[in-house]
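Case study 2.
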Amino acid sequence: MADEAHSLAVFIDFENLALGFERDREPTTGRAPRRKAGETLDVNAILERLVEKGKVIVKRAYADWGRFEKYREVMHDSGVQMMEIPERGKTGKNHADIQLCVDAMDLCYSKEHVDTFVIVSGDSDFTPLVAKLKENGKSVIGLGMKGSTSDLLASSCDEFVYYEDLAKHQASPSVSATVVPRAKRPAMKLLVDSVQALQRENKDVMYSSLVKDTMKRKQPDFSESGFGYRTFQAMLEDAERLGLVSLRVDQRSGTYVVVGLSDSEK
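Prediction:
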């Protein structure tokens, strides 16, 4: 399967993630990481990182949502299906874990086109689930907090992403206000962000179609015509003229390949 065709199912152990965020400690110092007053878990940063890896087909988060009321709106706006697991004394957490595992395996067996599963948790209890998914030919990505993620779980996944590392990639190169016309800045910023995302995924050959697919996964309503371009090729040519990206023409297909960001945008 082509890299750009990956279909993802995301399962979030929200209690583990949220509580880990609130009590996380820096691994080297043991101190709580510096956060702004009132800072909350950035759900959008997690989902934006995952859409860089492919098309997200399923998004489910498991929790007793009465305990995490402040996250309801952002979860709803992000299209995450909130699975209500009422806490029942000491067994509530285990019930959420079990339900997540059952749903993941059900999807594994019933939806062959879903080739990648994302387990958002740092709990070692999910290690057998990861092994079973891989046994059934699925790729597994894990995501959790550095200070509260089990080494066993992280090493069991095909790839593990730490939440703290997401912030390092959020500060994308600025699109020069003096070079890029104001009306075109949102499109050019999205283009630069998408090229960065593909570079993080180690894509050496970035065909124009792959770049555009990535842009539309990040922003489904994107259309180059809305920014005055007749074709996406014309937008890429303008981006190169503005010094944002470097292009070459693929000799076999005749289409553009994005070589990378210009030196000023790296």
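The chain has two domains: 3-169, 172-265.
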